[in-house]
Amino acid sequence: MSGWIGRAFACELHVDTPAGRLLRRCLDAIDRLKYRHWPDTEIADEIILAMPPEVAEVYLTEDALPLHSCADCGFRVPLTPDTNRRPARRHFDSCPLCGGKVATTPTSTAARQKSRAAVKIQAYLRRCAMRAVTFSRFGGPEVLEVMDLPEPQPGPGQVRIHVAAATVNPTDIGFRSGRQSAQLNDLQPPYIPGMELAGTVDAVGSDTNWSIGDRVMAIVIPRRPEGGAMAESVIVPSNSVARVPEGSSLEEAATLPMNGLTVRRALDLLGLKPGETLAVTGAAGAVGGYGVELGVAAGLRVIAVAGPADEALLTKLGAESVIPRGDDVAGRIRELVPGGVDGLLDAAVIGAPILPAVRDGGGMAVVRGFEGDTERGIAIHQVRVSDYAENHEALDGLGQLVSHGKLTLRVAEAFPPERVGEAQSRLEAGGVRGRLIIVF
Ligand SMILES: NC(=O)c1ccc[n+]([C@@H]2O[C@H](COP(=O)([O-])OP(=O)(O)OC[C@H]3O[C@@H](n4cnc5c(N)ncnc54)[C@H](OP(=O)(O)O)[C@@H]3O)[C@@H](O)[C@H]2O)c1
Fold first, then answer.
1. Ligand 1 center to residue 144 CA distance, Å?
2. What is the domain range of residue 301?
3. What does pTM read for this prediction?
4. Number of domains in the chain
5. Distances from the Cα of 154 to the Cα of 124, 132, 226, 390, angstroms
6. Which atom belonging to ligand 1 lies closest to the Cα atom of 432?
7. What residue ranges line ligand 1, CB within 6 angstroms?
8. Which of 142, 158, 246, 321, by CA, is between 20 and 30 Å from 205?
């Protein structure tokens, strides 16, 4: 057998040496690992546990490490205090126990190679780490923390995206606070929030049409072992991905997939025809804004419900009328459209009180479920963006609308991952216009 192992080791260890074979087996063991979390100090222990016993035995043998030992009492100093199983780099002039003379234990070439292999395994693991926004218990923004996790590898039909930006959405807050815990099944922490991102493809599995270097945006379902969008590297099914719209930055593109697809799904469920009327509540928000523009792009007459301060924005997005939010919105929509609107997208989650705005036999798309009964034959459509999470055509179509100036991408402010809690609190407080993004 010949050849070099591992890009990082090529210059040092040939596969056909004892140390090379050891390292190869260690790396195979590492590749088989499915880490869910990866605290630095436990790296070595986890690797060793995953190694075939005979490899672990060699790895753990003191002879594999260059030792310092006291000539008088024989005390051996194999490890630095802070880095587990890493050969000592400190030079001891005297024994820390008896003060005697310390000498380096003579080591064989094989032992030195094994030692080098051990150091390189750790370096390899450090290089393979990625930063991710995580939480391991439910609660307020304080439970969020940035952790180093293993870089995921794409499987068949998947791509890995080196993330430039991921967005902060209301669902992230629901996930973090535990409101979605019933949907987690046996999923173990740490959890990674985030449902949409944009970045550059940096690895591809088999059966994908994507290439390394493609600038893409993607939707991610975070309630899965691989986690969500808020990480430096994210793997997604290749159908969850589309090209970044021409003329858009990665930061802007990150704001499109999740909420754009939500509205696409809502409009498909409502099935309105050109010329019909669509009312949109929460129209100045992410879902609402796309609701107005996609409605206009589909040839609908759009009535937006929002605060007076948002009127100029919504007129610019194409709304035919803007109805002020507040009490009796349904009544005010009826004043404008006496027969009732054909369809309504309830992005503000007003629920049953908005139903009277809809005509008999019309439709209402709800984004957070619906409590109570419908009336007058109005169809209630439950929108779940997960139904379109692998709808590449829909996502690509949204991107083209952006390229043609029919859909507006709005970034409110960028935050580093360490300030994700602050960003979530800002969103929760209300009044944010445009999406808050986390930039990696
Ligand atoms: N089912 C799904 O698959 C799915 C997918 C995406 C989103 N969603 C849900 O859709 C909802 C909207 O998401 P988003 O990202 O668009 O949120 P957002 O950006 O915060 O927008 C919500 C908008 O609604 C406004 N609003 C709040 N109460 C209102 C009221 N009573 N009348 C009129 N407007 C009101 C808010 O104004 P202020 O900021 O001034 O309060 C804000 O402009 C969220 O509940 C989210 O969880 C569901």
1. 23
2. 259-387
3. 0.79
4. 3
5. 18, 17, 10, 16
6. 39
7. 169-171, 258-259, 262, 281-282, 284-288, 305-307, 325, 347-350, 367-368, 383-385, 430-431
8. 246
